[in-house]
Design goal:
alpha/beta, Rossmann fold, Arc Repressor Mutant, subunit A, 3 domains, 5-stranded parallel sheet
Length: 381
């Protein structure tokens, strides 16, 4: 029997839980040809929300094509643009002659070519015959829009892990090119809409939140906490399908333990489901939790090994519920030295994507299972 609690891939349809508001918001933006960004920590449901949105739009008879690429790993701007071009052209063409025609027709005056030898050796449908510059970047990013205009259909260009592009040496040039293309499209009949996602939350927030560069150009759709009721119904339905029994308070305990994170909940329930033929009990839950911790512990240990003493102390303060880190008594208690050092430590932990801060400057640990491991294993409370 197929596993109802899916955690190894994005989900749609009956396996998709909650997030109706987010799907409606993305749908409305796409139908209005507005560019979208969705950024959350890893395994918070970004891909599922986007796939469910596009799935629902298809079911509503919306006509469009989708091209998806991942910005990891990229060596430099040329590497990104070649992969971008390959993804776009392959999504809409299928023969060498068609590849060649697209490059000639839609990328004139650039350093992009269709090289039959490169196609034979490296399977590249677009190559560079010289060092690429910002003009080449703008022209390549405009390619899906030109194809969309030619084909008289909308193209949704999904770029995953977008923040990786900003970290390249030519990152600023790439971001400027994206802004130029996405801003100018409203002045033409360009039919390409970008969906930019990222799992390094603070890095994406720096691009689309704190920086004014994309303000008014890209709309951010945050993923809100999934309602307890939606998750509870999902868990009970999965348990009932397998002919087993789970109590209401057990369901709520699971939801609270993983702070409504569906990926962790599905993983946990899949383990639990494999351990019993009838009733769920506390022993099964503890064994399943220990299995999950054993899977992730190496990652958690490596994270802590890469922290300084001050960074560990600030994490301990976060777990203690501290919010005013620059208060003199807090600095003394956690041996943080000075308010200037506190600022440096906070910035370092954000750069490592361990914590973030709300608009009220309240700290949030980005990984709920890591938080539990810190409390119960590392600090052994």
């Amino acid at each position: 029997m197929d596993n109802y609690f899916i955690y190894d891939k994005p989900v749609t349809g009956k396996y998709f839980v909650g997030r109706k508001r987010e799907c409606r918001a993305i749908t409305n933006l796409l139908l209005s040809s507005e560019h979208v960004t969705v950024y959350e920590p890893p395994k918070c449901g970004k891909d599922s929300v986007i796939q469910q949105t596009l799935f629902s739009m298809k079911m509503s008879s919306c006509k469009f094509s989708v091209c998806t690429m991942n910005a990891l790993p990229m060596a430099d701007m040329q590497d990104f643009l070649i992969r971008f071009g390959n993804s776009v052209i392959r999504a809409h063409c299928s023969t060498p002659n068609e590849y060649s025609e697209v490059v000639k027709t839609f990328l004139p005056g650039t350093h992009f070519v269709f090289d039959r030898q490169r196609f034979s050796d490296a399977n590249e449908v677009v190559s560079a015959n010289w060092d690429l510059d910002e003009h080449d970047c703008v022209e390549m990013l405009s390619l899906p829009g030109r194809l969309a205009e030619k084909r008289e259909e909308n193209i949704y260009m999904v770029i995953e892990e977008f923040q990786a592009l900003a970290e390249l040496e030519e990152g600023n040039a790439i971001l400027r090119s994206f802004k130029k293309v996405m801003s100018e499209r409203s002045l033409s009949i360009n039919k390409c809409t970008f969906i930019l996602t990222g799992s390094r939350y603070n890095a994406m927030k720096a691009i689309f939140g704190r920086s004014p560069m994309f303000r008014g150009v890209v709309e951010h759709v945050p993923l809100e906490r999934i309602e307890d009721m939606d998750i509870a119904e999902h868990i009970k339905k999965g348990v009932n399908i397998s002919g087993k029994v789970i109590e209401k308070d057990q369901v709520m305990g699971i939801i609270n333990r993983f702070d409504n994170n569906m990926w962790y909940i599905n993983h946990f329930m899949a383990i639990c489901d494999s351990m019993t033929k009838g009733y769920f009990n506390d022993g099964i839950f503890m064994d399943a939790l220990n299995c999950m911790l054993s899977v992730h512990e190496v990652r958690f240990v490596n994270t802590m090994c890469n922290l300084t003493g001050h960074q560990v102390s600030l994490l301990k303060a976060v777990l203690d519920g501290v919010t005013k880190f620059t208060a003199s008594d807090v600095i003394r208690k956690y041996k943080l030295n000075s308010s200037a050092n506190v600022s440096r430590v906070k910035e370092a932990l954000m750069k490592k994507e361990i914590i973030t801060f709300t608009d009220k400057d309240e700290p949030v640990l980005l990984d709920t299972l890591f938080k539990y491991w810190l409390e119960t294993k590392y600090f052994a409370r």
